[in-house]
Fold these 2 entries.
Entry 1:
Amino acid sequence: MNIIFLGAPGAGKGTQAENASAELNIPAVSTGVILREEVASGSERGLKAKSFMESGGLVPDDIIIDIIKQRVAQPDCADGFILDGFPRTLAQAEYLEKSGVNIDLVIDIHVPDEKIITRMGGRRSCLDCGASYHVEYKPSKDAKTCDSCSAELVIRKDDKPEVVLSRLETYHKQTAPLKDFYEGRGKLKTVIGQEEVADTTRLTMEVLKG
Ligand code: AP5
């Protein structure tokens, strides 16, 4: 089964993709996590992506498509995968179709902008393994370190309030139109993001299990 998680920045795509990955035993592929790894390693791709990410814009399609092409060709994606944060533009969605990747289901996690703005202030991230926490809704065992790999937890540079606003604007202009694209193909299901992570997970699982 190949699944896409759509939704605004901070809607909970990464959190739900991780849960669905464990439940369905297929990998969650996050372009955001891969890009942050590229930036941290100082790769050519990372250097090109950095300024777009830090300003709240989108990384150019050719870089992202290259990343996805390589990632979904890995053996662990052979029985299905979950795309978290891809596609984000019409050109990326059209690339997926042209490349013959069949998408079974697109889940849009809907959370109003006002809620996202307050929620993002509490996110803490592990830049080593990509895990994401929330001081109130999904706390790590120790406030300062990652439960999975013990690395230090930080506030992502693009979680600064002014960058969050710019990411939301980018989302509404460039990514939200993909809802119509997938609705037209009969693949879109919407989950209303809830106050508690576990409640959104329950609703997401109901959609996944049809
Ligand atoms: P990316 O890392 O994908 O960022 P994003 O889409 O902005 O999404 P986030 O990771 O911020 O949020 P999320 O929806 O995964 O929410 P999360 O589960 O963490 O991309 C970063 C940047 O890379 C982009 O801005 C862009 O520049 C670039 N990029 C990536 N993909 C690209 C592409 N395809 N094309 C071009 N550029 C691309 O949850 C957020 C917080 O809320 C967490 O703290 C979580 O614990 C908490 N939370 C989650 N669910 C709930 C809940 N139900 N109740 C309360 N709290 C919750």
Entry 2:
Amino acid sequence: MAEDTITIRDDATGKEIKLPVVRGSMGPAGFDIRTLQNELGYFTYDPGFISTASCQSGITYIDGDDGMLLYRGYPIEQLAKHSNYLEVCYLLLYGELPNPSEMAHFQSVIIDHTMIHEGLRRFYSGFRHDAHPMAIMVGVVGALSAFYHDSTDITDPLHREISAHRLIAKMPSIAADSYKYSIGQPFIYPLNELGYVENFMRMMFAVPTTNYQVHPSCVKALELILILHADHEQNASTSTVRLASSSGANPFASVAAGIASLWGPAHGGANEEVIKMLEEINDPKEIAKFVKRAKDKNDPYRLMGFGHRIYKNHDPRAVIIRQMCHDLLKDLDTVNQPLFETALELEKIALEDDYFIERKLYPNVDFYSGIILKAIGIPLNMFTVIFAMARTVGWIAQWMEMMEDKEQRIGRPRQVYTGQPQRKHPAEK
Ligand code: CMC
């Protein structure tokens, strides 16, 4: 049997080295290039990490050709059907679905941490009234490390676990407060008799002067959005969290870095951009014009919510959420119907177009999540905040895994230098 190695040969010198193959439980193997530079004197060059695995992970598996997404081995379709978000959080953190007593305990631990320090709440008044809630999130989540000193010893597994619980529990409160501050309404304290999603919606939409009733269909839809966004292996924001914390930075600061990365329109910011795009298209008759622009090499315009680095067949999250979009809009009888119709028409036209077929560009999860969030009444500038809330468990589960990984070292990519060769300062000439 052939050795489980890959041979690399430098054609210039004829020197060959064998590199060990690293096999996982599913999907393509990697080969370990850690000795490459010492032995052959080369770096690998891979902008955007197209072919580079930065770690071994047992949390999430994606098969982009088959449109498959597994959390800890469970297909996303089955988790979306049978589990709630907190169960999924438990699964991502601890590797197994909780039994009823484990779930009851987990829920009570999370509930313990839903409030945020009053001093942290005063932080909000330092932001401009019209600040984007994502800008507030980056600041406030980073500032958690200034308030919870008792859980920032990253070498202590108990501290790590408490930080994980704190982040999952406090994120909805921080997110809702960011919104309340931006619209000048009083902050609403969490009410722990409510579920995770109901609590968040109440903190977002209730005012002290009236009773607030959550619409069950909206809770169901938001719960689904949180489950679908909970983790997605080594995406840009998760890799940012791993890279930031590889230096030993505390998890609050590292998750703040992840939120910053998520904010970009090519990543979590896309759900906001999709709605702006659909509103700009406005009339389905105008779609052809926008599709033409997206195909034009000289125009940077892209169809937002289309394409994915990994999914080249379909995004399994998009399939689930598309159905939810239908169901919710029917239940709510909402004014968003025309927006959804424009989206369906755009999807149809793009999927029949050679440009999109050749490049395997399919609607991704964000193509539909924005329509649901809008129907629920979530304002546009809160869309990425909801994504951040959902993804917090993924970031923190990946961080916990990394902290226990004996192979983990400070992240330090190399470069191929293209600047000036060494030269003399003018004063030295
Ligand atoms: N509209 C038009 N053309 C596109 C699009 C699009 N949305 N996405 C990719 N292309 C073209 C691109 O121009 C390129 O064409 P060519 O080969 O002729 O140069 C080709 O498809 C490959 O694109 P790429 O930018 O090299 O692909 P990537 O893997 O680096 O980028 C992406 C993936 C998601 C950033 C990109 O598809 C995109 O910008 N999509 C729109 C933004 C979006 O919806 N983002 C949400 C991603 S899902 C949620 C998440 O995980 O955060």
